[in-house]
Design a protein that fits this description.
single chain; alpha/beta; globular; about 15% strand
């Protein structure tokens, strides 16, 4: 059941082919929004898990259309500012406006901090932090020109608020997007554009680096407990995070900006 809180709105979502991005697209569509969906549909060079595919993005489009909403789904890498901007322009031209931006795309892998290969550090920062900045740079001018406010939600992580072990590059990138969001919340508040971050812990998606599980097992009595939550569930589902995103996107959260919202099974409270 949804409250149809986004009737007449258009949402732009990155990393929309599967996992959290797909859940956000489907949930916002169920709330009444049309969707501009973007994904690289490719595996990252430095991650151990397979990346999303064009077939995954097509399935997201099918699921949005099953909600009787329109969707513009395109393949592009958020590290490519020109390609990203072109998708935003095309989507706005076809769907008529832009109201919600969900910067969700990202990658993750695991290693002890001093053992992170240089190329892995660069790809993680370029994707998770620079790609998020590019997403803001491509969408905020549209919101400003439109002059009707908006909601920007950036997917960070528990690792964006805590120095989680095995994830130094990922944590650096996710701390970085929190700083970006806080600054933009201050700058854009006068335009009634809200900027918030959400902070999941583990989520059941395709982004599951095998080396993370190995490191947790090796450090089960030392660093591993830092990843544990307080609630009985071991892991969140993408829909759990999409519920929070839908609320932040809606007018029910119209006085909420510059916050870091944990949806983390109580991990940060331990």
């Amino acid at each position: 059941m949804t409250a149809r809180r986004l009737e007449g709105k258009v949402a732009f979502i990155t990393g929309a082919a599967r996992g959290q991005g797909r859940a956000h697209a489907v949930r916002l569509a169920a709330e009444g929004a049309d969707v501009i969906a973007l994904d690289s549909c490719a595996s990252a060079a430095t991650t151990s898990y397979a990346g999303p595919t064009e077939e995954d993005l097509a399935e997201t489009a099918r699921l949005v259309e099953a909600q009787d909403r329109r969707i513009v789904a395109r393949k592009a890498d958020i590290r490519d500012f020109d390609a990203l901007s072109a998708v935003v322009r095309e989507g706005v031209a076809e769907l008529g406006r832009l109201d919600v931006v969900v910067a969700n795309a990202g990658i993750c892998s695991a290693a002890m901090s001093w053992e992170i290969p240089v190329e892995k550090w660069r790809e993680t920062i370029d994707t998770n932090l620079t790609g998020t900045f590019f997403t803001m740079k491509a969408t905020v001018p549209v919101l400003l020109e439109q002059g009707t406010g908006g909601s920007i939600i950036i997917t960070s992580s528990v690792a964006g608020l805590r120095g989680l072990p095995f994830l130094a590059d990922y944590a650096a990138s996710k701390h970085g997007v929190v700083g970006l969001a806080r600054t933009m919340a201050n700058e854009l508040g006068q335009h009634n554009i809200r900027v918030n971050t959400v902070h999941p812990n583990g989520v059941a998606t395709g982004m599951q680096p095998a080396e993370m599980f190995e490191l947790v097992q090796q450090q089960a009595t030392t660093l591993g407990p830092m990843l544990m939550g307080a609630l009985p569930d071991q892991i969140s589902q993408p829909e759990d995070i999409a519920n929070a995103v839908a609320w932040l996107a809606s007018d029910e959260a119209r006085h909420v900006t510059g916050v870091q919202l944990p949806v983390d099974l109580g991990t940060l409270g331990r």
